[in-house]
Specification:
This protein has seven helices and no strands. The N and C termini lie far apart (58 Å).
């Protein structure tokens, strides 16, 4: 049903997603959530005592907040991505090795994707469309080359 309610919701969501660094913000938020969930996992080497225990909860919460803010306030994406990568790297020391490296990697990759996102960039042309356009471009270029050869 392209004209039904699902079609309009899907196209509206695609438009909303295209206007922001969606995947970067989502990965950063998922990384923060994963670190928060694995914070209570048992690892005998790491102890959460005093301020380190507070930082163990604070840093993943900031990761989650930065990911959500990237999604809903993309104009400040550079600031949030820098804070997100620093906090993600900080979870390595404070939160069970950054959620057993999974949350740390999700946070760093999401922050890097957000930092590299350009809002005014033209959408990429799929490989299938480039292949279809290549024979048409050759057909246009050949008569121009023949005429250039006659005049030279």
């Amino acid at each position: 049903m392209p004209g039904g309610p699902h079609g309009t919701f899907r196209s509206a969501f695609r438009q909303w997603r295209a206007d922001r660094p969606f995947w970067g913000g989502l990965l950063l938020a998922l990384g923060g959530a994963e670190v928060l969930l694995t914070l209570k996992a048992s690892l005998d080497v790491i102890l959460h005592v005093g301020m380190q225990g507070l930082a163990g909860y604070l840093l993943p919460a900031v990761m989650l907040l930065c990911g959500v803010l990237i999604l809903f306030n993309p104009s400040q994406r550079l600031f949030y991505s820098v804070i997100g990568v620093l906090v993600s790297l900080g979870t390595w020391l404070t939160s069970n090795l950054g959620g057993f490296f999974v949350g740390l990697l999700l946070g760093v990759v999401g922050s890097c994707l957000t930092f590299g996102w350009l809002p005014d960039q033209e959408p990429r042309v799929s490989r299938r469309r480039r292949r279809k356009a290549a024979p048409a471009a050759k057909a246009v270029a050949q008569p121009v080359e023949r005429e250039a050869g006659r005049t030279a």
